[in-house]
Amino acid sequence: MASLLVVEDDPTLRELLGASLRFAGFEVVTAVDGAAALGLAEREAPGLVVLDVMLPDIGGFEVLRRLRRAHGEDLPVVFLTARDTHEDKVDGLSVGGDDYVTKPFRLEELIARIHAVLRRAGRSAGVPNGTPLAVGDLELDPNAHLVTRGGERVELSQTEFKLLRYLMEHADQTVAKSRIVRDVWNHDFGGDPSIVESYVSYLRRKVERGEPKLIHTVRGIGYVLRTPRP
């Protein structure tokens, strides 16, 4: 079972999370603030971080940015926050979070989300296979876990990489949101299509900095990654 780093400044919730996750079979270390979290991440090399957004010293989003710089894109992170607007979720995902759980939450739900993120990370962390994909000047190499656009590297989290690979494998095909949830998330989000909308929004920010636009919305259905015309 993976080791977890839980970062939460509320002492009651921190103790409850630590005890509940240990009971669920995880090894758990806890941190009270961002600075302590960065130090523990360096020493303990956790398999996943449960990270509160509102911390007393360094905000959770900034903590994740620093974790990404120090440990790369492969460290899974689940955000905890009382801020539940769509914009807040997109902000959390845009800095590389793998999931975003709003307070109050049921412990069973959080544990299920952690397992889901670890499954996705585990599948991606195994020996990759498949031939490189290309749509226009967007290229994805599954073996190297590398994405480039116009020759420039694009940094993606595990889940973002998997979603982009899925869209590229189905290039020029309209894929329904429900199908994306089924095939990319394996129903881990209860079939909620809003998670797809958030991740597509984030992918667009990263891979569509210029022209032509590749990821198109098919209103009322889903998305299609279209090969640009010559």
TrEMBL record:
Any one GO cellular component localisation term in the record: protein-DNA complex
Record keywords, A-Z: DNA-binding, Phosphoprotein, Transcription, Transcription regulation, Two-component regulatory system
GO terms assigned for molecular function: phosphorelay response regulator activity; transcription cis-regulatory region binding
SMART domains assigned to the protein according to its UniProt record, in alphabetical order: REC (SM00448), Trans_reg_C (SM00862)
Record bears the keyword Transcription regulation: yes
GO biological process, one term: regulation of DNA-templated transcription
Annotated OmpR/PhoB-type domain residues: 130-227
DNA-binding region: 130-227
4-aspartylphosphate: modified positions: D52
Gene3D superfamilies named among the record's database cross-references: 3.40.50.2300, 6.10.250.690, Winged helix-like DNA-binding domain superfamily/Winged helix DNA-binding domain
Residue ranges constituting the Response regulatory domain according to the UniProt record: 3-118
Domain of life: Bacteria
PANTHER family per record: REGULATOR OF RPOS (PTHR48111), TRANSCRIPTIONAL REGULATORY PROTEIN TCRX-RELATED (PTHR48111:SF28)
Protein name as catalogued: Two-component system OmpR family response regulator
